Amino acid sequence: MEKSKKQTVFSGIQPSGNLHIGNYLGAIKQFVRLQDETDALFCIVDEHAITVPQDPRILREKTLEVAMLYLAAGIDPKKAVIFIQSQVPAHAELGWILNTMTPLGELERMTQFKDKSAKSSKAGILAGLLNYPTLMAADILLYQTDLVPVGKDQKQHVELTRSIAERFNNRFGQTFKLPKELLNKQTARIMGLDNAEKKMSKSAESKNNHIALLDTPDEIRRKIKIAVTDSGSEIKYALKEKPAISNLVAIYSEFSDKPISDIEKMYFGKGYGDFKKDLAEVVVEGLKPLQEKFKTLEKDPEGVLKILRAGAKEAAERAGRTIKDVKKKLGFVL
Ligand code: ATP
Ligand code: LTN
Predict the structure, then answer these.
(1) Ligand 2: which of 9, 84, 157, 199 to mutate, judged by most atoms within 8 Å of the beta carbon?
(2) Please, what are the averages of pLDDT over each run of 10 residues along the chain (334 residues)?
(3) Most CB within 10 Å of its CB: which of 28, 114, 181, 321?
(4) Cβ of 203 less than 6 Å from ligand 1
(5) Ligand 1 proximity of 150 Cβ (cutoff 6 Å)
(6) Domains and CATH numbers, the chain
């Protein structure tokens, strides 16, 4: 199929901490699958990361780390465009323009804003945290995106993107394609290992909440050993009745490529101890190729920067077409 006939896919990850298996299963694994069948762009959204204060040295380090993790996970720069958001100025430009057209109430309703702002005093909440979704809308709309592969926590932001685009199109004529979120049912919300009621999160307080993609085998074994379980002893996938075990079964299934029903059969009559021991090895083995490739990439930061610069160039060309059309429609002098 010709490139232009393929569906366009866009997604982004913030370089704001250690990427974990929730990010991998909910997002990156989909990216790798989609790069073959679609026209895909994957971004490292550093301008989103600064909506909470960041140490500049660490931000730079984490930005390159996310790029290397994309590559180590199997995203191929020959198949997909990989780039850093701040290297394409059209994102901030369109983000601002969309800000001027988005009612405050719609931003205040966003669950992520409510959750993140609840953790600070009012004086500590930055305007950028509230305006975060308009920048995300800009990311998506600049590329005439059809599909946005994300975890469930981002569904609301993609829905808002659609209403922002619709409103703009109604007022100024057809400009943006209306994008849709793409969720993988089994992995859209991987739960914390220390608490099966909350999603696995980079910013969780406990170190035992998540398995980071670069955790050592011993760290992985330790975290799985102490992961919370449910009452009873059966290994089965039943989200309401057994949320913690269901989460571990889903992780097992994803890293082993075995369907959930096979895992339930394999562990019928066995206890949590046996299951957890095997799960740890499945995750250790599952992450091994990624970790090895990461180590190789780390030795060649210049090579990675080169890929990112080429990605930014291609992204800027494509984004440039949309931003030019938007400016013309708004009455800006070009
Ligand atoms: P945090 O984990 O600190 O809340 P985040 O979700 O705000 O991080 P990103 O790192 O940008 O931010 O998320 C990258 C991708 O990973 C997004 O598509 C997000 O939906 C997905 N994701 C994050 N946490 C999970 C999870 N627990 N399960 C599945 N997908 C997830
Ligand atoms: N908001 C997302 C990161 C993000 C994104 C995007 C995802 C920024 N821009 C565009 C998909 C498409 C998050 O916090 N996970």
Answers:
(1) 157
(2) 78 96 97 98 98 96 98 98 98 98 97 89 87 98 98 97 98 98 96 96 92 98 98 94 97 97 97 97 98 98 98 98 98 97
(3) 28
(4) yes
(5) yes
(6) 3-183+301-330 (3.40.50.620), 217-295 (1.10.240.10)
